[in-house]
Amino acid sequence: MEATIPLLKVDSVGIRFGGLKAVSDVNVELFPGELVGLIGPNGAGKTTFFNLLTGVYVPTEGTIALNGENLNKQQPYKITRKGISRTFQNIRLFSELSVIDNVKVAYHSLAKHGIPSSIFRLPGHFSGEKEMDEKALEFLRIFNLDHFKDEKAKNLPYGQQRRLEIARALAANPKLLLLDEPAAGMNPHETKELMNLIAFIRKEFNLTVLLIEHDMSLVMGVCERIYVLDHGQLIAHGKPDEIRNDPKVIEAYLGEEVS
Amino acid sequence: MTTLKNSKGFWLSIVLALIFFGIMQYTISNGILNPFYINTLMFIGINIMLATSLHLIIGITGQFSIGHAGFLAVGAYASAVMTMKLELPFIIAVLTGGVIAAVAGMVIGIPSLRLKGDYLAIATLGFGEIVRIVLLNIEYVGGASGMQVSHLTTWPWVFACVMITVLVIRNFTNSTHGRACISVREDETAADAMGINTTYYKVAAFVIGAFFAGIAGSLYAHNFYIIQPSNFGFLKSFDILIFVVLGGLGSLSGSVLAAILLTIVTTFLQDYPETRMIIYSLVLILMMIFRPQGLMGTKEITSLFTHKKTKGGPKDGSHNTVA
Question: Which residue of B has its CA nearest to A132?
Fold first, then answer.
């Protein structure tokens, strides 16, 4: 696997906010089909790094390339269309929209009917909307959310909202899925379900997944490789066992949790 | 299956609207309805167009714009120039009014829609005032004393334009494009991350809204014999904003309903100019205390039909008909 061309290549990327270096000199390579973890103590710059990958922030140094194509200075929606999709640490669903409409929004960029077609209700509108309907329902079935489809997103229980957010991210048809603390606030049972789900979608959709997580059992259990970020810099990188025993990581983050 | 039910309510509304149109047309052409009521009717129609076009910008896309009277003014003056100065037919004037307002919407929208919330509100307010002051200083359109316009707006014109406005906005909203706009309203960052070109949809909503405000302006200009820049001050913008907020942000039928109710209230309070503003303000205050989500919340009349199946059909329908 290591021999193939990386799907995502992050080359000494960094960002400054004024005098503050939030992230600096980060090198990450993700290969097709991998499930990689990104860990680090609070304020280490993990979410900032996600924001750099998705174009919310423009890196002040370094380059980010997806399949060899430079993504620097691309607008977020274009990056999503090129194949990077994400979930958010604090759930950001379209809370007033129904569950199925949330998924349909993500599917929007694949829609073929334009504004005039919808305004004049041309045949393209109906076939396009029907296709979206079916596709969205299919996603909801995979995530076991189809019986909630007409419910407003804000009325779902917390765990289901997390699932919906992942379903929505997948509907955007990504090659690389970024999950920002998907297990936050979940109980151990829900976390276990989530682990199975992630393993399943990865196979089903042929995805590469990059995961930020604080739940060590989840990270150590499912990730093939782990990057560790502290104070905006990569301090370690390797297989879960290596990370577990890396003195720098233990010092920075894991403390005595891992024995 | 839901679409079938919705379309049932939809066709019912259309039929009721056509019946309402027929009755009104009959009473008008036979002189049963006195000119005062005819004028109120026209005014209601124009206000519905203004309310629904602003509803698309504020209620659906979530862009707080309070310069809608600016688009109204652009449409009114553009169409008046077409008929009075260039002596072109009314239909061309109406379309020109809409198109020029839409162009103005795009020119204003592209830079100012980068702003959010309060800042956007102030920028659009500024736009409205700029339009008014510019018109005030153009001698060609009469400056402060205004411009004489012949009376060309008739009930069929108003009715047709209202129907088209409401239908287009409804069709736009109930499509993937409308959902894209709503996603911008709900969470712009997430919409962006889901591949929605947020700037495009904000500008699109702005342009469509401005277009119909321009059409409304054309009808407005040709209904009142004279147009003056002072008719299009920021108070006019606030009137339109109040329709949208009172109707319920995000509800198309709500803004239609609010436009009808408030137009009737203001018309009949015109005899009591001293108390008019007090009553009007009182209505708004009470509304915001007891029903802050607006008349309809985010619901539509058609959804009331299908979900509850109450016997309120005819009552709801009569509101719909004016739409």
Answer: B176
Residue range of the domain that includes A66: 1-83+174-259
Residue A248 sits in the same domain as residue A121: no
**Beta-bridge partners for A229:** A234
Domain boundary among A144, A172, A200: A172
Identify whether residues A103 and A41 lie together within a single domain.
Answer: no
pLDDT tens digits for chain B (323 residues)? 344 555 777 888 889 999 999 998 988 888 888 888 899 999 999 999 999 999 999 999 999 999 999 999 999 999 999 999 999 999 999 999 999 999 999 999 999 888 888 899 999 999 999 999 999 999 898 888 889 999 999 999 999 999 999 999 999 999 999 999 999 999 999 999 999 999 999 999 999 999 999 999 999 999 988 999 999 988 899 989 999 988 888 899 999 999 999 899 888 888 887 887 788 788 888 888 888 888 887 777 766 655 543 333 333 333 333 33
Helices (H), A173-239: 188-205, 216-222
Structural domain spans, chain B: 6-322
CA angle B243, B244, B246 (to 5 degrees): 65
SS3 content of chain A, % helix, strand, coil (to 5): 45, 25, 35
Count CB-CB contacts under 10 A for residue B121.
18
The encoded tokens of residue B250 equal 């995000």
Nearest to B59 by CA among B186, B233, B212, B227: B186
ipTM score? 0.90
Q: Which residue has the tokens 């003014």?
A: B73
How is residue B266 written in tokens? 């203001």
Q: Report how far residue A201's alpha carbon sits from residue A205's, in angstroms, rounded to the nearest whole number.
A: 6
- CA neighbor of B255 nearest in space, from B315, B298, B221: B298
Q: Inspect the interface and report whether the beta carbons of A97 and B193 lie closer than 8 Å.
A: no
- Residue among B168, B196, B204 minimizing CB distance to A105: B196
Find the CB nearest B195 among A77, A121, A128.
A77
Q: Which two tokens stand for residue B200?
A: 């495009």
Q: Which fold has domain B6-322?
A: ABC transporter involved in vitamin B12 uptake, BtuC (1.10.3470)
Same domain for A66 and A179: yes
* Partner-chain residue, chosen from A80, A106, A121, that has the shortest CB–CB distance to B171: A121
Instruction: Quote the number of domains for chain A.
Output: 2
- The whole-angstrom separation of Cα B206 and Cα A250 is 54
Angle A174-A179-A183 from CA coordinates, rounded to 5°: 140
Q: Which residues of B touch A95 (CB under 8 A)?
A: 186-187
